[in-house]
Amino acid sequence: MPGRLHTGVKICGLTEEAGFDACVEHGADWIGFVFFDRSPRCVTPQQAASLASRGVGQAKTVGLFVHPRDEDIARVLEHAALDVLQIYASEERAQQVAQAFGVSVWLSFPVAGAADLPASCPVQKMLIEPRPPKEATRPGGNAQKLDWSMLAGWKPLFPWMLAGGLRVDNVAEAIRITGAPDVDVSSGVESAPGIKDPALIAQFVRNARQADRN
Predict the structure, then answer these.
(1) Which residues form the N-(5'phosphoribosyl) anthranilate isomerase (PRAI) domain (predicted)?
(2) Domains assigned to the chain
């Protein structure tokens, strides 16, 4: 992967100070907050704003929303000045959100096979992850691992990020197989649902960056 500085790392689902501080200390590029009440990582806009204030200018903040109404997003932005809105919605809805709020929008795009991979990007970035099982209560954050082989040789002309089942012990392999420019982790760096492990955060970032040099 010549020419790129390093793999971008997003740590998602921050709920507490120790985890947030570890993200900043170890150089995560993006720190994510979940605004979806079915998730064990859900935070209030006030909690997100308080955490974000601990690392102003150190990493970009991402808010995750599931089929949000404009008022849902506006209520969060009243308290937390997010850099990115990551949403589960249709491509048309993602474009509407981008136009309404003038903030970078990422579209979460679950796939089951290579035929599902997007041919274009209607917003600033596509987040490629596994399609959730039928019994799942959440569209993402289920610790499912994507079949990375479906991405081998896939070279889209738009920004994208790999998510789903990434951990300290497999992130380097995932980057090597898929060529992912950015990676996203949540449960893979947790000691309990919603509680991040600072040591795992440090190792995950280190292993993702080491993959660039290999």
Answers:
(1) 9-206
(2) 8-209 (3.20.20.70)
